[in-house]
Specification:
The chain is α+β, with helices and mostly antiparallel strands and 64 residues long. It is built from one helix and three strands, in the order H-E-E-E. The structure holds zinc ion (ZN) (2 copies).
Length: 64
């Protein structure tokens, strides 16, 4: 489990739902972290696979 900038980000980036295998289908999953390019995205639950790339942590404000 990777540690992120703060406790909230660590929780959400590592969060894995037991019900929804696809993170885009889970209403509880809001942050997706792509380890390959160190990219953070905010999941838009519009029924598709939309994300908004974020450069700053929504909780602590750190540069990601
Ligand atoms: Zn943070
Ligand atoms: Zn879920």
């Amino acid at each position: 489990m990777k540690n992120h900038c703060c406790e909230d980000m660590t929780f959400h980036a590592n969060f894995k739902c037991e019900i929804h295998e696809n993170p885009f289908e889970c209403p509880d999953k809001i942050i997706i972290f792509y380890e390959q390019n160190n990219d953070y995205g905010l999941i838009i639950h519009d029924g598709g696979m939309s994300i908004i790339s974020i450069d700053f942590c929504p909780w602590c404000g750190s540069k990601l």
